[in-house]
Recover the amino acids of this structure.
């Protein structure tokens, strides 16, 4: 099961439960997770932390989580088939080491925990270094899931904040090749604003309008819109439906200057 923790004003921290451990993705804060563990009798420990990129709202909770009594290094975790050689199971890109990452990962690396694997994808663009984690579960405990940080959002994509727009375009192309049924777990609840922008700019796209109406209702009822299925993004996310890089860049710049 994949658990959602709300953080800051619009961040999500994801917790993948595997056997008796939880694997946390992008814990920018710690108190929500620690509160959950205080109350839960079922889960034994936080077994691993996966970081997508260096922004504070993704790494800020590492220190407190690792020093808590709930952090228990799990010997069964493998990186590319081998046990970890030194260091805690805190995975992420190289430039996140100063924020607590102890196992540097990049494209093609595989983290295994019990019968679950996370394949690492380099998806730069929002920041210079940014990875995503593709979760596959051999026993179908989990649907295919992709933890993409701030690269792809519901109905939108990350801003270029230290990365490169050409890289961002390529990264989104890469994500769009994942299985269509993949659930996208991004790190922010931005879907409604993104679709408002998309609906204004592509008024003739009925799929976008339909999704925008649904998302508006969901948000009125305080429901999360994440995860979203990749097939839905491929049909309604303007950064994935655009024809080429030129069009992509125009949409990204126009959104950056959009007042909403
Ligand atoms: Zn970010």
């Amino acid at each position: 099961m994949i658990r959602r923790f709300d953080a800051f004003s619009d961040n999500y921290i994801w917790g993948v439960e595997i056997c008796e451990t939880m694997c946390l993705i992008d814990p920018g804060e710690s108190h929500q997770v620690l509160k959950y563990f205080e109350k839960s009798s079922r889960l034994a420990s936080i077994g691993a932390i996966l970081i997508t990129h260096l922004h504070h709202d993704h790494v800020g909770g590492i220190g407190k989580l690792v020093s808590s009594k709930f952090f228990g290094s799990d010997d069964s975790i493998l990186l590319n088939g081998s046990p970890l050689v030194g260091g805690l199971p805190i995975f992420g890109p190289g430039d996140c080491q100063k924020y607590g990452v102890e196992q540097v990962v990049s494209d093609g690396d595989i983290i295994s925990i019990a019968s679950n694997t996370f394949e690492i994808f380099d998806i730069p663009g929002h920041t210079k270094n940014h990875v995503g984690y593709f979760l596959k579960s051999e026993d179908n405990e989990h649907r295919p899931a992709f933890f993409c940080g701030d690269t792809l959002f519901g109905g939108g994509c990350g801003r270029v904040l230290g990365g490169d727009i050409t890289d961002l375009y390529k990264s989104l192309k890469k994500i769009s090749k994942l299985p269509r049924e993949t659930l996208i777990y991004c790190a922010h609840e931005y879907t409604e604003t993104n679709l408002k922008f998309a609906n204004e700019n592509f008024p003739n796209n009925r799929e976008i309008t339909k999704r925008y109406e649904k998302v508006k209702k969901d948000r009125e009822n305080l429901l999360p819109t994440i995860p979203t299925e990749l097939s839905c993004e491929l049909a309604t996310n303007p950064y994935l439906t655009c024809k080429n890089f030129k069009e992509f860049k125009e949409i990204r710049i126009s959104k950056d200057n959009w007042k909403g």
Notes: The chain has one domain: 2-191+225-237. The pocket of zinc ion is lined by residues 53, 55, 126, 150 (CB under 6 Å). Residues 2-191+225-237 form a domain with the Metallo-beta-lactamase; Chain A fold (CATH 3.60.15.10).
